[in-house]
């Protein structure tokens, strides 16, 4: 039903009712033989001639009040729909208003809300894709720059340190055995160069960390340790069993090994490094032990010795971490990774 039709029907009903009431009152009060009674007869202490305007005014006010309330409700509903026109909020139902024009407006608003939701979803998808592309580009730039720095350090500083190390070793070997100040200083220089080589190797592990890249964990660990055995003056032993876990878990174990070896090279001043990776029932155990200078775990600064990264990686795979270090006796780091149902790889 349209608003115009509704108003016409309402007006007709009110007019008819008003006419009937007025006629009954008129003929009952003023018989047609004496029209002067219109001025002399009184109702409610008022001449009858004033009654009709008063009743008309009253009925008009009442009709306006009712109609005004109705339209105010309709417009308020439309206003609420416009105010809350967001893709994630449901609007007022069109059938909640019994007026075709208002229902049409609400239906248009509902279609507009659906279009806004589609546009918002598309914009969010584009923003996510753009962010992923930018993040990937940044990671590639960072990786390329780290590789470039690693190559330049390897081709320049690392080669110079190697040459200096060989030169100092030759000088010290050719000198007659002695314990004078000059000999001690030359040996100290040689040790300093060796330590610099170790720190440079540790820096390479951070700048250009080895990746599993689909290799088995055992294969990746043996490749890493073989490379270190050839490049650092340290005895490296290992016992690596074949274990097959989820790729994410294997990657975290491999990164923990890298971090631990890097710390040993940089800080431990060790001569021997032992690595063990075994599986016992439903647990994979990795232990890295060195005979370096050790330290007090309780007095270590938060984040020092690279332990913070190791703890975070261990926590990510639900592993237990045990660190034992005694000054002058070396350090042992052990992680126990529980094998849950579904963690084992079928490769």
Care to describe what's here?
The chain is an alpha+beta fold. 62% of the residues lie in helices and 12% in strands. The chain has helices at residues 3-29, 37-40, 48-83, 100-174, 181-207, 217-231, 247-268, 307-316, and strands spanning 42-43, 46-47, 235-240, 272-280, 283-290, 320-326, 330-338. A hairpin with a 2-residue loop joins strand 4 and strand 5 (283-290). Helix 5 (181-207) runs antiparallel to helix 7.
Explain briefly what this protein structure is.
By secondary structure, this protein is an alpha+beta fold. It has helices at residues 3-29, 37-40, 48-83, 100-174, 181-207, 217-231, 247-268, 307-316, and strands at 42-43, 46-47, 235-240, 272-280, 283-290, 320-326, 330-338.
Name the assembly state: single chain
Identify the strand order in the major beta sheet: 3-4-5-7-6
Coarse morphology: rod-shaped
The amount of beta strand, in percent, is 5-15%
Run of helices and strands = HHEEHHHHEHEEHEE
Query: Tell me about the biggest sheet?
Result: 5 strands, mixed
Q: Structural class per helix/strand content? A: alpha+beta
Helical region count?
8
Backbone CA Rg: 46 Å
The total count of strands amounts to 7
- Which residues sit in consecutive blocks of at least 5 with pLDDT less than 50? none
Mean pLDDT: 80
Share of helix, binned: 55-70%
Gap between N and C termini = 71 Å
